[in-house]
């Protein structure tokens, strides 16, 4: 008799004990994205026939899309910053699903848009929820997805949004052996770090990718996911030599 365990598991996960949370922004010209990218463009290639031609076989509707590789909710892979790093076709399917840890610093980010998530913040989180498991996806909740403008530049053009401290990223990889990180803004590093003339450009983003891990940027709805106990699935194309691409991410959570 064939083993139907996995089929039963799917049925259970889609049942009333679990809720599925979409962590992805929809793709459109209005999608939140890094300020240096143009909005998505869609060119109609083929379209349905008019109603007056119903007696004919209607052709399909198809578009040709033009979009930056790191647009909207997207994955960054090591090749994004490092020419010898793994590109998208080298990311395994096992790297698309993880135990999900959500560190909520939304109140702190509301009070301080330059908030930086540190090792101390993570250690304090662990005192409440326990040790972060190996191969976890650690998501930094800031509630930044609720904002129309992701960057908030001041009168001097300096953007303000929260991000990771580079040493916190190193600590998570070295001390907790995590699988990936994610966040709601369009950058790993806080805005004031990315614009400092005396700083290494994008140090946090470079660190996670240099350590051969992926990250997901411009997440949403982390406020609908508990701190522990959920799983996250992050799907994206197997693009040859790809440095990143819009991704579809969702969490499966136990209902309280």
TrEMBL record:
Annotated Pfam families: Cyclase
* Molecular-function annotations in GO: arylformamidase activity
Annotated TM spans? none
Which top-level group of life is the source organism from?
Bacteria
Recorded hits in InterPro entries, A to Z, give:
KFase/CYL, KFase_sf
The alphabetized list of GO BP terms reads: L-tryptophan catabolic process to kynurenine
Q: Give the PANTHER family listed for this entry.
A: CYCLASE-LIKE PROTEIN 2 (PTHR31118:SF12)
Protein's recorded name? Cyclase
């Amino acid at each position: 008799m064939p083993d139907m365990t996995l089929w039963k598991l799917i049925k259970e996960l889609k049942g009333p004990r679990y809720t599925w949370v979409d962590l992805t922004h929809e793709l459109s010209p209005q999608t939140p994205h890094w300020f240096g990218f143009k909005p998505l463009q869609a060119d109609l290639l083929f379209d349905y026939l008019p109603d007056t031609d119903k007696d004919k076989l209607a052709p399909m509707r198809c578009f040709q899309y033009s979009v930056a590789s790191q647009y909207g909710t997207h994955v960054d892979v090591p090749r994004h910053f490092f020419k010898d790093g793994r590109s998208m076709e080298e990311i395994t399917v096992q790297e698309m699903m993880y135990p999900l840890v959500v560190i909520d610093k939304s109140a702190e980010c509301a009070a301080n848009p330059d908030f930086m998530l540190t090792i101390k913040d993570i250690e304090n989180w662990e005192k409440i929820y326990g040790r972060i498991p190996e191969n976890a996806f650690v998501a930094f909740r800031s509630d930044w997805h609720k904002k129309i403008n992701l960057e908030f530049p001041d009168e001097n053009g300096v953007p303000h949004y929260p991000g990771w401290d580079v040493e916190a990223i190193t600590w998570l990889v070295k001390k907790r052996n995590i699988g990936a990180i994610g966040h709601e803004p369009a950058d790993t590093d806080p805005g004031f770090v990315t614009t400092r003339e005396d700083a290494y450009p994008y140090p946090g983003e470079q660190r996670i990718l240099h350590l051969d891990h992926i990250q997901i940027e411009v997440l949403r709805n982390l406020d609908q996911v508990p701190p522990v106990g959920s799983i996250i699935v992050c799907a994206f194309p197997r693009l040859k030599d790809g440095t990143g691409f819009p991704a579809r991410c969702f969490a499966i959570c136990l209902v309280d």
